[in-house]
Amino acid sequence: MFGLCFTDDASKYFDLELSYITASPLGVPQQVIAVNGNFPGPTINVTTNENVFVNVRNKLDENALVTWPGVQMRRTSWQDGVLGTNCPIPPTWNWTYNFQVKDQIGSFFYFPSLNFQRAAGGFGSFIITNRKVISLPYKMPDGDIVISIGDWYTKNHTALRTALDMGKDLGMPDGVLINGKGPYQYNASVPDGINYETISVDPGKTYRIHVHNVGVSTCLNFRIQNHKLLLAETEGYYTQQNNFTSLDIHVGQSYSFLVTMDQNASSDYYIVASPRFVNQTVWQRVTGVAILHYSNSKGKAIGSLPDPPNDFYDKSYVVNEAISIRMLEIEHL
User: Fold this and answer.
1) What CATH architecture applies to the domain 143-323?
2) Which residue has the higher pLDDT, 237 or 1?
């Protein structure tokens, strides 16, 4: 085994430590996998062409690997972090991944790839930005925001893994998390006392929002009350810029949106991630809700949650939505 070092380009170094902590994202104490003591884990920010070194230390009680799906491992396939290309990292051991990010840009995420550990967490955002010599196909945003959405079970990952090994279905999730937190109490069906995510913004500014579906089985529809989502990038490529009121994000997918904070600050606004292709009445409790808070907001979010797509009579909706997303042809340097 050997490593490749690309000495003409800059290098970035990161340390990730996987460990168990107790958290209560849905109000029920449970074991989750933290990265550097945090759930979710830290964001890895790199620039095109940089050499990336990630030292992963395994403090779990079982073998582990960390993978970065969608990031192309050109001539470094053994750094992909999946069984078959990597040997597992035993408990208490560490392994340093070494790969170069080439001309891909945008939103990705990392997670543990063995033993269904991703159902317990261990995930974080992985963002690749342009070198300065490459111009953006849009005006530089005023800031970046990372949002991880995903279905969540209060059973630990070993119990879920055992059920799958026995041929059983996972069943309906217990909830949907947004940045590792449970839903805002938007109505009486949501238990009191659950810690929810609040994202603070300034009025008039435009933010690049990176959204990842880090769940295990559920497609989620993402939307922000009264705000348009201008799609700008998906998993390595800029896209033709189309406005959406909501977008389906399947498990493992990532998108970047440009969102301008152009609404009245009389109240906060709902950020929603809800399951798709299910009985909405039965699955109503499986809805992630966070808060978008303007710095000059005068009150709490009000009204009903923004509606998901109503495609009961239009089964081609999801297909048409997907094929409307087109890559933008630009020259990479």
Assistant:
1) Sandwich (2.60)
2) 237
